[in-house]
Design goal:
Layout (H helix, E strand, L loop, with lengths): L1 E4 L2 H14 L5 E5 L6 H12 L13 E4 L5 E5 L6 H5 L4 H4 L4 E5 L12 E10 L2 E9 L1 H12 L6
Parallel strand pairs: 2-5, 2-6, 4-5
Antiparallel strand pairs: 1-7, 3-4, 6-7
Length: 156
């Protein structure tokens, strides 16, 4: 599924719809260049999960945890150099835990991440427009995308 976003709020709305559909154990992987909107999308996921606190990038701390309807584990691999480094962090409790895990710069550690996930590639289309390419891997995420397509205001 491809979604075009022309604003920060639209990107957050897509994230919010994903957060409302999220279930314990879900893993959302975000890929895109610096400034593409990965944290913005995560802020929307947090909103959909009912997180009240401000969501900021975990670039310098690797992981931030937020409380909502389900815990949100927000990871950022930007400063990591290798799959081995990522594998050695012991992230299993987050990736296979009771919350929703959103990973920014996921392309740096795909080999160390769960096989089943929702991959979202964010591209700058032009100026403030973004293209969100949602790539489900596994039945759970196929269902999530199917449900997302019926969400009011999300569209394709």
């Amino acid at each position: 599924m491809d979604i075009v976003s022309g604003s920060v709020e639209r990107t957050r709305s897509v994230g919010s719809a994903l957060g409302k559909l999220a279930e314990a154990g879900d893993v959302i992987l975000l890929v895109g260049p610096l400034g593409a909107g990965k944290t913005c999308l995560t802020q929307g996921v947090a909103r959909g999960l009912g997180v009240i606190e401000s969501v900021v990038s975990p670039t310098f701390v690797l992981l931030r945890e937020y409380r909502g309807r389900l815990p949100l584990f927000h990871l950022d691999f930007y400063r990591l150099d290798s799959v081995d480094e990522i594998s050695s962090l012991g992230l299993e409790d987050y990736l296979f835990g009771d919350g929703v895990c959103v990973v920014e710069w996921a392309e740096k550690g795909l080999a160390a991440l769960p096989r089943e996930h929702l991959l979202i590639e964010i591209e700058r289309a032009e100026a403030s427009r973004r293209r969100l390419r949602l790539r489900p891997s596994g039945a759970r995420y196929e269902e999530m995308i199917s449900q997302l397509g019926t969400e009011k205001g999300v569209g394709k």
